[in-house]
Amino acid sequence: METSPQVNIRRAGEELSVRVGGAWKMGATLPPQAGEALSAVREGSARTLILACDGLTDWDSSLLVFLVQLVRTAQETHLTVRRDLPHGLERLIQLAFAVPAKQGASRTARTEGLLACVGSAVLALPEKLREFTAFLGDVTLAVLRVPLGRSQMRRQDLLAAMYECGVLALPIISLTSLLFGLILAFVGAVQLAQFGAQIYVAGLVGIGMLRVMGAIMVGVVMSGRVGASFAALIGTMQVNEEVDALSTLGISPVDFLVLPRMLALTVMVPLLTLYADLMGILGGFLVGVSMLDLNALEYLNATVRMVSFKHGVIGLCYATVFGIIIALTGCYQGIRCGRSAQAVGRATTTAVVHGIVGIIVATAIITVICNVIGV
């Protein structure tokens, strides 16, 4: 009794006969004649391929795969195929070729070059801009519906989003802003101490935190914490078809999901920025009093004297723009998320990256505008 797969190849004129026998089991080592049979069919020297059994004792899907490969190769080389196989095996082969494979359905390993990747990205850019513009238009219309009383946004969703964006973010904002104020004061003190101008550390920390650095720190932290959360939450709802269910019920997903989160971030990021500014100034205060031997009252008076009100207003403008950017990127990536777990992860990562890049670009633009108008 054969215990291993057997393949016998015979040639008779223009006929190529391939007979299988033995026991075909998954994991068994195929004989060299299996590869020779495929090569002989691929050569196309014969006109007819005959498939038959000779002492076949047992078989599973490994035999079916081998025979399907032979038949498919014969079809590609235009050979006539005649089969003399057991009824069950014959039926499985017929099922394998009952429905032709769709064009492009099979995966092919294809590596694109640098120019091809750049070209594909450039060609896809207009469609992405169109989708984002449409999303931005939907959000704008949703905002305009709020004062008219026609919005489908729920008040409890807005309060929950404000709590998530504001109260729950206080610990991480406190830590990062305090440490950043310490670092900024320490770096300034190293240079200013050489000229005996340690008192100007107060102005350096105060202006730096109020004007831009406090808003940037809050923006980066909120992009990684809240922007990613929004993208993951809405993306998961896309996977579970909950967004489609809202649309089916006549509820606008933009009003129900995007609007409360965008309003919450637009309100809470400026408030968190004010808190971050105070924590940063506190960090500079600790360095000035403990390391620079400055009097506490002297440091506070120098901060009030050197830091004007306009720096705080400019910082709040930065923060408001950052809040809108973080909300738009997070919600847009969630709404446009695919229908798989991998797509949710990709949307979350993209939301964080786009949010931080948007913050940097917005900072550069607002800074140039402030310099042009002289504020």
From TrEMBL:
Q: Record's Gene Ontology CC terms? A: ATP-binding cassette (ABC) transporter complex
Keyword vocabulary terms for this entry: Membrane, Transmembrane, Transmembrane helix
A Gene Ontology molecular function term for this protein is:
phospholipid transporter activity
Top-level division of the source organism's lineage:
Bacteria
**Which chain regions cross the lipid bilayer?**
160-187, 199-221, 271-292, 312-332, 352-374
Output the InterPro entries linked to this UniProt entry.
Permease_MalE
Matching Pfam families, A to Z?
MlaE
List the PANTHER family hit by this protein, alphabetically: ABC TRANSPORTER PERMEASE, ABC TRANSPORTER PERMEASE PROTEIN-RELATED
Q: What is this protein called?
A: ABC transporter permease
From which source organism is this entry? Answer: Candidatus Desulfovibrio intestinavium
